[in-house]
Each structure stands twice: as C-alpha cells, then as structure tokens.
Amino acid sequence: LGKPTDVVLTLRDVGKAEYLGEIHLTATLWPKSQEDKEQYFQRSGKISDINRRLKSQIWSSVVTIVLVEGKNLLPMDIDGFSDPYVKFRLGTEKYKSKVIYKTLNP
C-alpha cells in the first residue's frame, strides 16, 4: 500500500505462439481518502495482519489508463504496415482504443 510496484504484462493471443510484446507500468495502491488510510492502519500494528487485509480489502477508486505509444510493431498488412489498436479488460469491463491506420509506431 502506497509503494510503487513495477509490473510487466506479457501480451498473448490465445492459440498463437507469436510474440506480441510487453506492457511495462508502475502501479501504486492508495486508499480512497486519508481518513480511510488512517483507519486501515490503526486497526492493526502487525505487518502480517496488514498484508492479509490488503489481499482481502476491496478499494473503490478511479483508474486512469493513458496509452502513450507503440514501437516497432509487426507488419500485419500486405503493404508492410499495420492498423494497430489496443484492447484491454479491467475486471469485467472491456475497452478498445481507436485504430491508428498504416503505421508500425503509433
């Protein structure tokens, strides 16, 4: 809680062995408010109890995802380019970015 954690997500397509790349990000988990944070840590002084609560606690919060860039994508079209877009799922919600036509470096 409150500590940045580096996460590497390997991109996969079910049924295909082709390497699709990775997403590198840094994530930090924060309580909704300072009051929630103080109340959470006030309940226990033991680290093991804190870790156990972190695993079972459900935080209601806002997630902002910013797509920055893609580099050196594999050409998928006959003309040597691709029309890349990003699909991702957050919980049960599915999202798709806009398509950037005819590029390998959006």
UniProtKB/TrEMBL annotation:
Any one biological process term the GO annotation gives: regulation of neurotransmitter secretion
GO terms, molecular function: calcium ion binding
Record's keyword terms, sorted: Calcium, Metal-binding
InterPro entries to which the protein is assigned, alphabetical: C2_dom, C2_domain_sf
GO cellular component: synaptic vesicle membrane
Name of this chain's protein: C2 domain-containing protein
Database matches in Pfam families: C2 (PF00168)
Every C2 domain range: 43-106
